[in-house]
Amino acid sequence: FNSIAYFLIFSYILDSFSKIEAGIYTVLNRTLVAPFLLISKIIGDIYTSQTSKSLRIKVNTTNTFNNFFKLLFVICVLVSILGFIIFPYLYKNLFNFNFLDNYFLYIKPILIYSVFFLLASPLSRLLTITKNFKKDFIWQSILLITMIVITRFTYSGFEEFLYIYAYSFALLYILYIFIIRSCLKKHFWING
């Protein structure tokens, strides 16, 4: 579903705005989201290991979830602050992305949904560990449907579209955390 969603968003930007904005979206999305994906993978691997260990020794995994949620929350707050202050200058000076000066307004919405992605993504591994594939499929379907709905509207500009997209996905990732948390409680009471 992720590939389909990305293709939908790219096609929508290309059809509704311009090739330049589609290219800007692609470059910003890949360069800004890359550090979030790396952090998410590292923390997700550690979370998977700790949660699996807790399940093997029949310990309540709620504590593991809560500790990792707190850690991710602190990281997300720091990344948010740094993201709006340092990332644009870091990318400009480190990677020589001079076009960021002109498109700084487009960076903000991408950072918004990336931060919420970082908060939810590592914790979502709980669904795989506890074999809640149905809920994960429902979640992926909700994301795809939201993407389809968002791309059916007409927006006054590219920036407005990006903010609607970012806020929609931020809210969905908050919902995802509640879904994951509910699976945690159900799994513990069934197996604990």
Q: Radius of gyration in whole Å, from Cα? A: 18 Å
Class of secondary structure makeup: mainly alpha
Termini separation comes to 33 Å
Shape: globular
Mean pLDDT across the residues is: 81
Query: Main sheet?
Result: none
Order of helices and strands: HHHHHHHH
Q: Helix amount, in percent? A: over 70%
- As residue ranges, the low-confidence spans are 188-192
Strand content: under 5%
Given the structure, what is the number of helices?
8
What's the total count of β strands? 0
Tags for this model:
mainly alpha, single chain, 192 residues, 83% helix, globular, disordered C terminus
What does this structure look like?
Mean pLDDT is 81; it is low at 188-192. The chain contains eight helices and no strands. By secondary structure, it is mainly alpha-helical. The chain has helices spanning 2-16, 19-56, 62-85, 87-95, 104-120, 125-129, 133-150, 158-191. The protein starts with a helix and ends with a helix.
Task: Give a brief description.
By secondary structure, this protein is mainly alpha-helical.
Write the SSE topology.
Blueprint: H1 2-16, H2 19-56, H3 62-85, H4 87-95, H5 104-120, H6 125-129, H7 133-150, H8 158-191
Helix pairs in contact: 1-2, 1-7, 2-3, 2-5, 3-5, 5-8, 7-8
